[in-house]
């Protein structure tokens, strides 16, 4: 499943600059969880659009979560496989409407949530490892509640890591969930999920589909096990974190230095405070840097799972 929000413009000209906002979900990797978020973002961006600037929002479920032939025959998929798939989908994106339809975007902004932030950084790494002549031009990334280092040290990471010591736990849990929820109708399960969890109706519907899906729970836990083992030390170099000063040759080559913005939560059960603070100390800019990441900590009580929570007005 994918979600696409096209530019809210009545006239697109050959000189219009087109920017893609490419959204990468967390785990479970269903884009449906973010429909309200992306619709709201599209509406907020509309005043910034003009005849000369157009924004396109695009996101889709992570590989392995929708009941496709690929998922049913080849899944569940590892974290590296999910990353590669996300990058190939990004590579395939072109302008969707107007006289420049089919051409590459003038700039790309990645938004990742939770493990989607890790995937976004990996997409940047893959892009920077390719030829400078590629059509992909990432200009920045916004990383929401990012789980990019030492996820297993978080409160939830400690708990789920203990479960992964059980042999074949992802498959066993998947079979248990199927046996428990499959007899229920979609409506009954949706009502029960909303009642028990307090999720908004939209999130409860996606969760009910997740629990009844042929491979969803297995894929989510298989991916989570990879996250615990792979998301450890900071693995990116200065090309990702920002080069303080480019030499003249790099400037002439138009070297890409995407701007990163990290938005951390307070008391995030998927991000330990000490690992978050260590990353901020090691990598954040001082506010004056044009290339070093900007890292901020939420002050409004927004939870890690904002897309499945009822937020106060």
What does this structure look like?
With 313 residues, the chain is of the alpha/beta class. It has one domain (2-155, 231-308): Alpha/Beta hydrolase fold, catalytic domain (Rossmann fold, 3-Layer(aba) Sandwich), CATH 3.40.50. 40% of the residues lie in helices and 14% in strands. It is built from 12 helices and 7 strands. The protein has helices at residues 35-45, 69-74, 79-91, 115-128, 155-163, 169-181, 186-197, 201-212, 216-230, 238-241, 248-252, 273-283, and strands at residues 2-5, 17-24, 53-60, 107-113, 138-144, 259-264, 294-297. The chain has a 7-stranded mixed sheet with strand order 1-3-2-4-5-6-7, sandwiched between helices. Strand 6, helix 12 (273-283) and strand 7 form a beta-alpha-beta unit. The chain starts with a strand and ends in a 16-residue tail after the last strand.
Which keywords apply here?
313 residues, alpha/beta, Rossmann fold, 12 helices, 7 strands, globular
Helix/strand-derived category reads alpha/beta
Q: Order of strands side by side in the largest beta sheet?
A: 1-3-2-4-5-6-7
Number of helices: 12
- Cα(first) to Cα(last) distance is 29 Å
* CATH homology group: Alpha/Beta hydrolase fold, catalytic domain
Based on CA atoms alone, the radius of gyration comes out at: 20 Å
Q: Name the CATH architecture.
A: 3-Layer(aba) Sandwich
Helix content: 25-40%
Low-confidence stretches: 245-254
Assembly state: single chain
Strand content: 5-15%
Biggest beta-sheet profile: 7 strands, mixed
SSE pattern: EEHEHHEHEHHHHHHHEHE
Query: What's the number of domains?
Result: 1
If you average the pLDDT, what whole number results? 89
Which fold name fills CATH's third level, the topology? Rossmann fold
